[in-house]
Design goal:
The protein has about 325 residues and is α/β, with parallel strands linked by helices. It has 3 domains: about 45 residues, Orthogonal Bundle (434 Repressor (Amino-terminal Domain)), CATH 1.10.260; about 130 residues, 3-Layer(aba) Sandwich (Rossmann fold); about 130 residues, Rossmann fold, CATH 3.40.50.2300. About 45% of the residues lie in helices and about 15% in strands. The chain has 13 helices and 12 strands. The strands form 3 sheets. The chain has a 6-stranded parallel sheet, sandwiched between helices. Strand 3, helix 7 and strand 4 form a beta-alpha-beta unit. Helix 1 crosses helix 3 and helix 5 packs across helix 13. The longest helix is centred in the C-terminal third of the chain and has 17 residues. The chain is elongated and about 80 Å long.
């Protein structure tokens, strides 16, 4: 008695039978009852050794870069839901922002032999030599990797440079000429570097000066770090009228700290975010930000990975998902 025999006798597809026998939740109760009845009637017993060997090729590893990254966690939730509808299982590994995710992936590759690997956040150019050693299909979501030579690595992200330039243009067009930046470590985070380059494109285009040491505050992407960063930025640079933050969580933390310091947003200082978290539209003031499509990033990223797994020698794909500029209430027009 095999799974194919159970499928024939029950009238359900092999994939449905497999999900029932592996106790996957995404099966109707009618199908589950019928399939289990057929299996019991014919005394079907799974070969656990064969099952374990087979699952090695049905396992997807997911590496999340950033302990408290709300955007990545939202994308992760969508991905896990859709993986649950396939024959694959998954495990999640959470890394610090500054960890080398490629080395972690290599360890997982040698120990668990996954069918594929998903990177939620990462720095493929900085760790290119390690990325090139990974010999299974991979996809990087929220960053870009078109210049990495490993054909196993696809990427699905947002045009961070263009988006950062657009939101900085908005600040300047509203009369803000002395700008502060709260962002990630541009020497260790490619996303932070791209967003800073977009910011600089706008500043230079409008003929403004920018002193990195005085006007840039490096921090991690979290509420707490955004709060402490704005305090440091204000203390070292007088006269700032607007702050470009590289993440919504940084912006929300900064707004809370400024409020505690008696500084009103946007009356005294304007602030913008980046990511478009749902939370930003329910805080006061509503945050002006760049919204990335969590759903599109997740679905396109997983689809690219599954396509690569199913087709040997498939070339990598690199997609840019459209973003949306959200005009909130956190920027004051002063000209």
């Amino acid at each position: 008695m095999t799974i194919k025999d159970i499928a024939r006798l029950s009238g359900y597809a092999v994939g449905t039978v497999s999900r029932v026998l592996n106790d996957h939740p995404n099966v109707s109760e009618t199908a589950r009852t019928k399939i289990l009845a057929v299996a019991k009637e014919h005394h079907f017993v799974r070969n656990t050794n064969a099952q374990q060997l087979k699952q090695q090729g049905r396992y997807i590893a997911i590496l999340v870069k950033g302990v408290s990254n709300i955007l990545l966690n939202s994308i992760l939730e969508i991905i896990q839901k859709h993986i649950g509808e396939t024959i694959y299982t998954s495990s999640v590994f959470v890394l610090d922002e500054y960890d080398n995710e490629a080395k972690t992936a290599l360890k997982i590759y040698y120990e668990k032999r996954p069918a594929g690997i998903i990177f939620l956040g990462g720095n493929p150019q900085r760790y290119e030599s390690d990325f090139n050693k990974i010999k299974v299909p991979c996809v990087l979501i929220t960053n870009q990797a078109p210049n990495v030579s490993n054909n196993n690595l696809s990427s699905v992200g947002t045009d961070d440079v263009k988006a950062a330039e657009q939101i900085t243009d908005y600040l300047i067009e509203n009369g803000h000429t002395k700008l502060g930046v709260i962002g990630g470590d541009i020497n260790n985070s490619e996303i932070s570097e791209r967003r800073f380059n977009g910011f600089l494109n706008s500043v230079k285009k409008h003929g403004l000066e920018f002193d990195f040491d005085m006007q840039y505050q490096t921090t991690k992407y979290s509420f707490e770090d955004g709060a402490s960063a704005v305090k440091q930025l204000i203390s070292k640079c007088d006269g700032i009228t607007a702050i470009f933050t590289m993440g919504d969580v940084q912006a929300i933390g900064a707004i809370r700290m400024l409020n505690d310091m008696g500084i009103s947003v946007p009356k005294d200082i304007s602030i913008t975010g980046f990511d478009g978290l749902l939370l930003t539209q329910y805080i006061y003031p509503r945050l002006t930000t760049i919204r990335q499509s969590e759903s599109q990033l997740a679905k396109c990223g997983l689809a690219a990975l599954l396509e690569a797994i199913s087709k040997e020698d498939e070339e990598s794909v690199h997609l840019l998902i459209p973003y949306e500029f959200i005009e909130g209430e956190s920027v004051l027009k002063i000209n």
